[in-house]
Amino acid sequence: MRKTKNLKSKIIKKKASVLSFCPYIPKPYPLFFITPISPDSQPKLSLILRQQLPLFNFKSPKAQNTSISKMTKEVVGEGGSFTAKDYHDPPPAPLIDAAELGQWSFYRALIAEFIATLLFLYITVLTVIGYKSQVDPNKPGVVDPCGGVGILGIAWAFGGMIFVLVYCTAGISGGHINPAVTFGLFLARKVSLIRAVMYMVAQCLGAICGVGLVKAFQKSYYTRYGGGANSLNDGYSTGTGLGAEIIGTFVLVYTVFSATDPKRNARDSHIPVLAPLPIGFAVFMVHLATIPITGTGINPARSFGAAVIFNEEKPWDDHVCSKANI
């Protein structure tokens, strides 16, 4: 009992760092601890909920080397009770960080954004081309066995590819794959101006190359079915299309910020792993709602790349709707 008192008294006088306490234990799981009110008092058995529990790093080599240390809190003992200080957001990214230009990780992130956007446009534009039954009007007797994927198939393609690509690139570049997301993170001071501009350039170049591959491999279908370019559908005004793009882009960026909230990540360590899922699902839902209006932009790189390669007058005339994404 005396050893317990001495140990608890030492803990009360120290600052501790919260690292991790088995994230797989459910939040309401009760944990019992013997906590003395003062060094001279009798130990008391207390019921503490997991979310109220301060966690301690006793400076083990393994704990010191973990990246979880970035999510630390200071816990100070006062009068026998532990109180955790409010979580502090990471410091804002510098507006201009010239040091990034000399780091390999920066260029690796640019390559990741370029490849991810290229793959995103390649798969999704191919899916858009397959929206309708691919029957040659000059051959009325030929039947397409696939029959077209429909709006639901297009929405699944866009949402599924975002889920996969964000999961693959989140640890390299942050998994933006969208200038609207990059611009939002820049306004929130999550990325520097240099990184934001270079990301947008890489994303637009990747989109152009991705759509270019589709045209090279499926030129006849590509031209016949509009090249996957965004345009305002008949029966909708420019204001309606503009509003649909603004709201859809807001839903996506809002979901990105919520899924990557550092406060939530610090509390629930499984959140970063699951972040691509709600982001992809948000893209899926927005496409279901806005494909009949504008074909769904919500990604300036996607709209820009398709318009550049298709290079017809109507997509460029209606491109103002896609500019609402930015």
From TrEMBL:
One of its GO terms (cellular component) is membrane. GO terms for molecular function: channel activity. Keywords: Membrane, Transmembrane, Transmembrane helix, Transport. Pfam families: MIP (PF00230). It comes from the Eukaryota. The chain crosses the membrane at residues 110-131, 151-172, 193-216, 236-259, 271-293. It is found in: Membrane. Belongs to the MIP/aquaporin (TC 1.A.8) family. PIP (TC 1.A.8.11) subfamily. NCBIfam families: MIP. PANTHER family: AQUAPORIN OR AQUAGLYCEROPORIN RELATED. This is Uncharacterized protein. It comes from Linum tenue.
